[in-house]
C-alpha cells in the first residue's frame, strides 16, 4: 500500500472538517451569495434563503418573491442584514454550469474549465466569497499546472473558508503539505544536492550542517544509549559471560579515543552491521566478535525509557526544523524579546533561497519551505474543538520515515488540547510491519485503541504486550477499555476516507455552533 492512501484520507479529512457555511453561516461585508427570495415584507425587507439558512435582510432595491438573485453583503445594522442585489439569476437554478457562468460573466472573468469547476465547488459547499477572492482564485488557477486543478481548487476553497490571504504561496503551501513524497526523502535529497555545491557561502554551510543534524539526531541518540550500556553492562539482562569479556575489550579500545571519535566509530560499526558496506565503513577497529556484540546491543537498546524523552525528542525536531517558527516569532514580538536567535532550518532555507543558487537546488529548497509552511495551515478550530496535523521526520539507522500525527480534541482555556478528551491518529511506515496506523480515542481518560496493519503476526504480538501497555497507562491515570488490531481494507483510500470523513458518527468531538452568526 502506498503512503498516499491513508495520508490523503487524513489530509482530506482535515480540510473537510473546516466549519462549513451549511452548518454555521457567517456573512461578512463584500461577500457574494446566491439567495432565493422566500417572502417579501414592507420597507424593502425580505426573507431570503442562502444555502440551508433563512435570514431576514434589508434591501436597497426592489426584488421579486420566488426568484433567485446574486447578492452582495453590505453589512449589518440594528434593522438586520443589508444586502445589495447584483443580478437576477436567469434559467434553471439546478443548472450549476449556467449559474457559474453567470457569476463569472458578472465579474468579467473568463469561463474556463478550471474557473467553472472552482465556482461550482464554491456553490456546492455554499461558501460565501468576495469578488476579490474570486479574482485572486482564478488568477492562481491560471499559473498552476492543469493536472493539479482538482487539488488546487480544494486548497483554494480551504483557504477561503479559513480566511487566509489568497496568494500563490499560500495555496502552494497547502498543496505541498499533502505531498506524496516523504518529508525524510525531501530532506535527504536536499542535503545530497547541497553537499555537491562547491565554494559554499557561510549560510549554505550552516544549512548543510543543520540538515546533517536533522538526519543524524536519532542515530546520535542510539549511539549515546549504546555508550551508556557499554559503561553499565549490568543493565543488559541477556548478556552472556563471553559478551561481558568482549565489552571489556571494546571499552579498552574506546578509552583511547576522544568523544567524537567514539561516536563516529560506533556509528560506523552499527552501519556496517546493518549491511551498509557501501558507505565506506572500515570495520578494522573492532574484531568480528566485538562488532557482533555492538550490533546485538544496538538491536536490543531502547532509545526511550519514558514519555518525557519521546516528547523531548519531538520538540527538539520541531524546533530544529522550524515547524513553530511563526508562533515563536509572535511570542517574542509580543514580549519584546530579541528575534535574532531564530535560526531554524526553515529560516535558513528562506535565506539560502534568496541567494544565487543552482536552479535545481533552489527548486528543492523552495519545495521544502512550502511544505514546512503548509503544516500550520491545516490547523482547524470549530467551536471548542481543535484539530491539526503534524509530520515529524524520523531518521533511524536502518529506516527513514515520516511520523504523521493527527490531533483532535477539546481546547482548554490555556489553548492546549484537553488530555481527558481527545483523539490521536498516528501513521508511519516501518521496515518490517510496513504501513501502520494507530487510532487512540480518549473520553474522560478511558481509551480505546485501534491498530491497523496487514502483518499476520501483529495481533499476537499486541496481545502479549497489551497487559504491560495497560499497566503503563494506568500509572498515568488512563484506563484502556479495548485494544484491537485490524487489517487495512482492500481499497484503503475509499474506506479510510469514508470512516475519517464521517465526523459526527465516528468521532464524538465534532461541534455544531449557532445556525446563523451575523
Automatic annotation (TrEMBL):
Organism: Metabacillus malikii
Tree of life domain: Bacteria
Protein name: Flagellar hook-length control protein FliK
